[in-house]
């Protein structure tokens, strides 16, 4: 009996999700989505043309927006000053993967 109830619930849920996801947008929502897509495209073109970089900061919900070249310089300076990171001469992924598979 429980299986029939779950099956019926599952069918109703699937119908509901299909109705929400596949029903056409209203004209107003179409205009809003088109406008948002145009704004997003404009922002992407500006980022590419001006060679900008956008990153989430360590501290939470803030973004760093700046020159990609300056960002790279600051990153290299940080790595050099802290000696916290070592550049690998080769990618060890395949070797590690093989060892894990052999376990």
UniProtKB/TrEMBL annotation:
It comes from the Eukaryota. This is Uncharacterized protein. It comes from Rotaria socialis. The lineage of its organism: Eukaryota, Metazoa, Spiralia, Gnathifera, Rotifera.
